[in-house]
Amino acid sequence: MSISSINYSSSVLGAQIRNINQQLTDLSTQLATGKLSQNYSGMGTNEGFAIAGRSQLSNIAAYTDTITNVNVNINLANTALQSLTTIRNTVQTGSASTAQDLNVNGQTVAQNTAASQFGSMVGVLNTQSGNRYLFSGTAFNTQSVANAGDIINGTTTQAGFKTVMAERQAADLGANGMGRLVQTQPTPSSVRVSEDVAGSPFGMKIAAVSSTLTGATVTGPSGSPVSFSVDLNGLNPNDGDKLSVQFTLPDGTTGQVDLTASSATPTPIGSFAIDATTPGNTATNLNTALNTAITKLANTSLVAASAITAGDNFFNTASSAIGAPVNNQAAPPAPISGATALSGASPSNSISPGFAAGDTITVNGTTLTFVNSGATGNQLNVGDSIQTLMSKIDQITGTSKPSTVHGGSITINTDDAASLNITTSNSGALNALGFGSTPVTATQPPLRVGSSPASSATTLVNGSANTVKWYTGNDGPGSPRSTAMARVDDSVTVQYGAQANEDAIRQQLQAIAVFGTFSTSPTSQYAGGQVSALSLRVTQSLTKQPGQQHIEDIQTDLAMAQNTMKDAGTRQTQAKAQLQSIIDQAESASPDQVASELLSLQNALQASYQVTSKLAQLSLVKFL
């Protein structure tokens, strides 16, 4: 009979050897990988910090990708904006030059350059980053601006800017070429000049008349339509006596006619002849000279102003509500102005009926209340001026173009035509301001001459149904910058949107389109004066004006977004280093410590093997 050897593999000593072997394997893995374990359960109590750290590192990586992508978009946008600045400077230099030589098409070299630069500007505004149009706001999948050819020349169904400008010029000049003014000689000794239609938006408006003509009687400007008259009363003025008439042009600028009485032969330019023998002929000479001067002003400065205004009608997205012309109580023939009071006892320079204490006007949901005196906040005194009311309305609407009173007509401007809504508790007073119905809403551009023939039209109408829409991106309310936002840190977002219809961009595109599209007859006696007057206006339009948005302002906004991202990136870099340190401390194995433990375990295993070997040779005979 034999006795089987003892099963040491299931003994305590065998289990200890297996445990040492497993520890050796784990330590060898730690030495090879530098990690405490290949699974979370073996990492120890600090693994929770490592898991949280990894989550934060993942967020930082996402923010880094976002910052990279946003920077690409901003860099492309900034390059485009810099190109727009170059285009502006090129056209402005040309428009400011004195060279007025016209080619067969009735344009100067500078105008041809502007036409070319317009196409370049449209291309720049349609810049894409990937599939994103950078100047379309939230409508980033939509082309920002219509094709240059369509904008200028139109399509088969919609009129372009060239047509709108031609219509506007015809409407402003009128059939007689005198800027919608009518000149007559009511008596042999007098001259009368009148606007053709009260409240018409077209032509020249009589602003002021002054005279040093000896023995003459000057009346007006007053009445509806506005007119003035000069009666020499059968007398001759003295040499050097002067008549000055100031006109307001469609673009808001002024033009002036100065005529000096002269007995010199030949009669100097800008003068009218004194007939010493027949004073009645002097009045005829004044009438002829005034007609010539008005016609020249109409066919030079007015034509240029008309082109600028046509550009505004076509390109400007700041819409308006226009009231009918109104006269004040004190002088019924005199139109209201910004100084006219909102209430007052007759006769006074006020509207009638006026507003009373307790009346309200609600603008886009904000209510203005009338009080007798001491108005604060959203209150108005009943005796405040129309200008005060318009300023309050402009504050609420946030318009970039202040509301105006011209020729007795109130124009309320707004950057968002769709949102303008004005109501009142006193409809009679609102009617006295020229607004015959409520709610008062805005006409959306583009604006077109309201009837045909244009030379006798008296209204502007919404032309959106049959006119090219030059800007095709997002045109809702709010800051263009807010149309593209990105989170670049846990509590930091940046705004980097842009729209081609922002004031700085739109005004530049508009001015270049006007300059590059306008043409005249090379043989016209007024051609040089037209181009000169237009060049002056275009140069001014392309010159930075205080209080207006500039291309550089947009670049500054984008630069601020980049600085914000740069600061966030710096913080994240520092955080990454700290988080990685926490993870390393929680998960990394020290090579020196592992090596020491390996040596210790190897010695222990060797000793265990020696004991095991001796025990494995033990038999009952040896044991006994």
What does this structure look like?
This protein has 13 helices and 21 strands. It is elongated and about 155 Å long. It is an alpha+beta fold and 624 residues long. The chain has helices spanning 12-33, 47-95, 109-125, 148-153, 161-173, 279-315, 386-397, 427-432, 503-517, 527-541, 551-587, 591-616, 620-623, and strands at 128-129, 132-133, 181-184, 190-195, 205-211, 217-222, 227-231, 242-248, 254-262, 271-273, 319-322, 360-363, 366-371, 379-381, 404-406, 409-414, 422-424, 447-449, 460-462, 485-489, 492-495. Mean pLDDT is 86; it is low at 1-6. A hairpin with a 2-residue loop joins β1 (128-129) and β2. 42% of the residues lie in helices and 15% in strands. α3 packs antiparallel against α9, α6 (279-315) packs across α9 and α9 packs antiparallel against α10. The strands form seven sheets. A four-stranded antiparallel beta sheet has the order 3-4-7-6, covered by helices on one side. Strands 5-8-9-10 form a four-stranded mixed beta sheet.
Characterize this entry briefly:
The protein has 13 helices and 21 strands.
Topology (SSEs and partners):
Elements: H1 12-33, H2 47-95, H3 109-125, E1 128-129, E2 132-133, H4 148-153, H5 161-173, E3 181-184, E4 190-195, E5 205-211, E6 217-222, E7 227-231, E8 242-248, E9 254-262, E10 271-273, H6 279-315, E11 319-322, E12 360-363, E13 366-371, E14 379-381, H7 386-397, E15 404-406, E16 409-414, E17 422-424, H8 427-432, E18 447-449, E19 460-462, E20 485-489, E21 492-495, H9 503-517, H10 527-541, H11 551-587, H12 591-616, H13 620-623
Parallel strand pairs: 9-10, 13-14
Antiparallel strand pairs: 1-2, 3-4, 4-7, 5-8, 6-7, 8-9, 11-16, 12-13, 12-17, 15-16, 18-19, 20-21
Helix pairs in contact: 1-12, 2-3, 2-9, 2-10, 2-11, 3-9, 5-6, 6-9, 6-10, 9-10
